[in-house]
Design brief:
The protein has 280 residues and is of the alpha/beta class. 40% of the residues are buried. The radius of gyration is 18 Å and the shape is globular. It has ten helices and ten strands.
Length: 280
């Protein structure tokens, strides 16, 4: 007989954010649209939190996610998980404050090579986040497409980022988000060898997936995401997003993630004049 944890849902939808900026627009200098299309204004972000609260879904913390993925959730119950990738300063300064006001837990995944750089949170900001509310995990060191790297480099990226975060936070780091969704069997094996036990991807779907804690699916929040789409996702309807992901899967597989990212930038008009210090 499967043990169930009180209040833990059997399924959940995970949302992935990046930066949350003040005002309707924000000057990111020469950063290209390939990155900033995933950034949302604080006003829109707070409206999205209203929708999440109004949905009645439980916002899950690390313990609840673990229990759900271990099969200990209550059948028929659905939850939501809020995540942030890269380590943007606005996510820490604005988004964390907004979710903390509502006592909503969230996950932050940090590309450790970007800590303290322009637009990105510094060491002090990460130390000041409330560990009872926020779970901090790794997003690699350099934000490279791991599936295209040699196995030794994958392992180094994941081990080095975890060690840096553990030294910084003085607590274990066991959660990982794969940069750019560049997941492969080698990447998952390397992640487990580096000490991670829960791995978030960019696969679109509800959780648990077939790989459970080794492939936690998420749907990406963009500047163009409207409240109706968010409501549909919270209701478990991800059909449009799954169809789009299926169409993009072929060129990603044929080109490889690094080459695909370069082609995508060119199509977005970023072939020259834009700054790219991470992939994609």
């Amino acid at each position: 007989m499967t043990h169930t944890s009180a209040g833990v849902p059997a399924r959940f939808v995970a949302l992935v954010y990046h930066d949350v900026h003040p005002g309707e627009t924000f000057d990111y200098g020469r950063l290209g649209r390939s990155a900033t299309m995933y950034h949302v204004p604080e006003r829109a972000f707070r409206s999205q939190l209203d929708v999440i609260e109004g949905s009645g879904l439980r916002c899950l913390d690390a313990a609840a996610v673990r229990a759900c993925l271990a099969g200990q959730g209550t059948p028929g119950e659905v939850g939501v998980v809020i995540t942030f990738d890269d380590g943007w300063r606005g996510a820490v300064e604005r988004a964390a404050r907004a979710v903390a006001e509502r006592r909503m837990p969230a996950f932050f995944f940090v590309a450790t090579g970007l800590i303290g750089r322009r637009y990105f949170a510094g060491e002090l900001e990460w130390r000041q986040l409330d560990p009872t509310l926020f779970t901090i995990g790794s997003h690699g060191v350099t934000h490279r497409m791991l599936s295209d790297l040699p196995s030794g480099e994958i392992l180094a990226e994941l081990r080095d980022s975890r060690r840096r975060l553990e030294d910084l936070l003085d607590r274990p780091v066991r959660w990982l988000s794969i940069p750019g969704g560049a997941v492969s069997r080698r990447v998952i094996q390397s992640a487990e060898a580096a000490g991670y036990d829960h791995i978030f991807s960019s696969e679109v779907g509800t959780n648990p997936t077939g790989l459970g804690r080794r492939n936690i699916a998420r749907v990406g929040m963009k500047r163009a995401t409207d409240l109706a789409a968010l409501g549909r996702w919270l209701g478990g309807d991800l059909r449009r997003e799954k169809a789009r992901a299926a169409i993009l899967a072929l060129p990603k597989r044929l080109l490889g993630m690094r080459r695909y990212s370069k082609v995508r930038r060119a199509l977005l008009g970023e072939a020259a004049g834009s700054e790219h210090f991470f992939e994609p």
